[in-house]
Design goal:
Shape of chain A: globular
Number of helices of chain A: 15
InterPro entries (chains A, B): 6-PGluconate_DH-like_C_sf (IPR008927), Chor_mut/prephenate_DH_T (IPR008244), Chorismate_II_sf (IPR036263), CM_dom_sf (IPR036979), CM_II_prokaryot (IPR002701), CM_T (IPR011277), NAD(P)-bd_dom_sf (IPR036291), PDH_C (IPR046825)
CATH class of the largest domain in chain A: Alpha Beta
Radius of gyration of chain A: 25 Å
Order of helices and strands of chain A: HHHEHEHEHEHEEHEHHHHHHH
Pathway (chains A, B): Metabolic intermediate biosynthesis; prephenate biosynthesis; prephenate from chorismate: step 1/1; Amino-acid biosynthesis; L-tyrosine biosynthesis; (4-hydroxyphenyl)pyruvate from prephenate (NAD(+) route): step 1/1
CATH topology of the largest domain in chain A: Rossmann fold
Number of strands of chain A: 7
Oligomer: homodimer
Subcellular location (chains A, B): Cytoplasm
Strand content of chain A: 5-15%
Main location (chains A, B): cytoplasm
CATH architecture of the largest domain in chain A: 3-Layer(aba) Sandwich
Keywords (chains A, B): Amino-acid biosynthesis, Aromatic amino acid biosynthesis, Coiled coil, Cytoplasm, Isomerase, NAD, Oxidoreductase, Tyrosine biosynthesis
Number of domains of chain A: 3
Distance between the termini of chain A: 23 Å
Largest interface: A-B, 163 and 163 residues
Chain lengths: ~375, ~375
């Protein structure tokens, strides 16, 4: 490198440093302004996540960016990242309490990760929250005294038995709700055990989300929906979207979405392990897409075996779906063994057609994701 | 909403608009400054991607952010997103030409997507690039006249035959290289057919990457590596990382990374299709992780059946790996049918242990990815 080049680069880099300093100042300013919006919204009891306003704001910024020769996607991505931080911060402020005369909330399994998250959100919203765990049943009567909402958050395999054995004597005005990832059986158990309002909830996210903004909670109606309305409104104020569904439709979808997918991810990891694959060298050869897929597999095995055993073993019906997959796999392998490329491509085309417009949509979505995976790559 | 609340929100939002306007100005400024760095680097023939400098710069910004009460990850994510844009822009400027007396580059299959990308990169670096496709073989002699590098980029199933049939008469100083995703057979074919320098390349990315910055190209040495050195240097200048590997080790890893993974993704899509799953309702119930996984499956079916048939049918050895997976799947299903939770959890623990430190690492990585997937979620 010549001296002139070095000097030129040095000078430009100083200027970039200056710009970055101003960037940090602006970020600080924007976070503070959005926090003040949060305070005002909090005072007025407005939800923190306003999808339509957000969409309008982004559309405006995209146009402004275009006019300045800046790729619109760039400003959108940066603003979305900033908004994530603001959603996280909004938690510190607390949330509007929708139901001020509820009495106690008791979370059964409140020491579990998901129970803890809901306990935290309810506390931040001004409710008086108590946890009732394995060792607390001797004091159950005093803990449950004056309760207005019981939230069941225990492992799936224990849920129904616990409801039937322990929750037969709740006050009639009390809401009984659960957070289990299957809905038919727990809902049935709750309806048979408790005479008052009942609602089944399935939060479609793990306990490690920083904020509930944009997350989904599936709601299956049980009894006296009007008495449960405030709870759904409260969840909306936390930023989550409430999706109503019937318990059987929910469970059917979950066989494919959860049991099936977790099972095949489990087998994928098992297979890597049995083949004694060398992860470090796999990573060395990995494109962003495979690194992402490997991370998704590894992620599962960083979590609790019980949790996944519960999800996979919970539904008898998922055995059928999981078995069907085995048949399809065996059939496709047969094509490979026979070297039958033609039929393989025919099946491929059939599936493409079935995916329809979703295939290109997924392709675009995954491209954006892969780009951000690539952004994250550390220096090597 | 009271009038006071409305007015307060209005005022704050105006201020946020102002901040965003300044943000756009700064982005424009930063992109321009980095472009000027690019011009200087281009003139001096320096690579566009300097990992160590990037790491230092990010570390400095993180510290500055911390001092201002800004989460360090926030500024890192924003700067990485900005750098991606700058890498993309750097392409427009062209690249330093490492070998100025090469003569022609001929890309066989230059009309295919990957051939086109390499043709574009070589042209941007000042080389004289010609494409030789299916219909051009009658003019092959004139196209290949004065050639210094032949790059083979045709479907896997045609690669070896094409090399043996058509490339026996290249000038002895000419480099023969290929871009195939398997390496042993093509390398053998090239070495047997051509007496001069030979090198096998496997670009670990799809043709839809916007920039080669941070991407990986696997290099398998063939003959006269010193004559091929400029080519690897050239690839480095485009921003990619060159990973040296032996052809057999590469192919072995690829059986697990590519053939195996693509095959099981194929079966997953086939299974959804045969079960007549309702994608729209699956999406409605989907957590970010499942949406991401579904997008990865759908992505495959937005692409060419031939491409995937080629990858999956290319290696006889991958049948073994794909068959082993079937056995592991059948064994795990047996556990499910017997309701044997205990053994399931035992296997789970075994795999977790085998993943070792990679499991929590993957968990953290995937959490970051899932957060950006969630950021991207449009208003509903």
């Amino acid at each position: 490198m010549t001296e002139k080049t070095t000097a030129e680069l040095e000078q430009l880099r100083d200027k970039i440093d200056e710009v970055d300093q101003q960037l940090l100042d602006l970020i600080r300013k924007r976070l503070d302004l959005v926090a003040r919006v949060g305070v005002v919204k909090h005072g007025a009891g407005l939800p923190i996540y306003a999808p339509q306003r957000e969409a309008n704001m982004l559309a405006k910024r995209r146009t402004e960016a275009s006019d300045m020769g800046i790729p619109p996607q760039l400003i959108e991505d940066i603003l979305r990242r900033l908004m994530r931080e603001s959603y996280l911060n909004e938690k510190d402020m607390g949330f509007k309490q929708v139901k001020t005369d509820l009495g106690k909330v008791v979370i059964i399994g409140g020491e579990g990760a998901l129970g803890k998250l809901f306990g935290q959100m309810l506390t931040l919203s001004g409710y008086q929250v108590h946890s009732l765990d394995k060792d607390d049943w001797q004091q159950a009567d005093s803990i449950l005294d004056g309760v207005g909402l019981v939230l069941v958050s225990v492992p799936i395999r224990l849920t129904c038995e616990l409801i039937r054995d322990k929750l037969g004597n709740l006050p009639e005005h009390c809401i009984l709700a659960d957070l289990t990832s299957v809905k038919e059986a727990p809902l049935k158990a709750m309806l048979e055990t408790h005479k008052g309002p009942v609602v089944g909830l399935h939060p479609m996210f793990g306990p490690d989300v920083g904020s509930l903004a944009k997350q989904v909670v599936v709601v299956c109606e049980g009894r006296q929906p009007e008495a449960c309305e405030w709870l759904l409104e409260q969840i909306g104020i936390w930023g989550a979207r409430v999706v109503q569904a019937s318990a059987d439709k929910h469970d059917e979808a979950m066989q494919l979405v959860q049991a099936m997918r977790h099972f095949s991810t489990f087998v994928y990891g098992l297979n890597l392990c049995r083949e004694q694959a060398d992860i470090a060298s796999l990573l060395q050869f990995s494109s962003p897409i495979y690194r992402l897929e490997l991370a998704m597999v590894g992620r599962l095995f960083a979590q609790s075996p019980e949790l996944y055993a519960d999800i996979i073993f919970a539904q008898d019906k998922s055995q059928q779906a999981i078995g069907d997959y085995l048949d399809n796999y065996a059939n496709a392998l047969e094509l490979l063994r026979k070297g039958d490329r033609e039929t393989f491509m025919q099946w491929f085309a059939e599936v493409s057609q079935w995916f329809g417009d979703f295939a290109p949509q997924f392709r675009n979505e995954s491209r954006a994701m892969l780009q951000s995976v690539n952004d994250m790559k550390p220096a090597h």
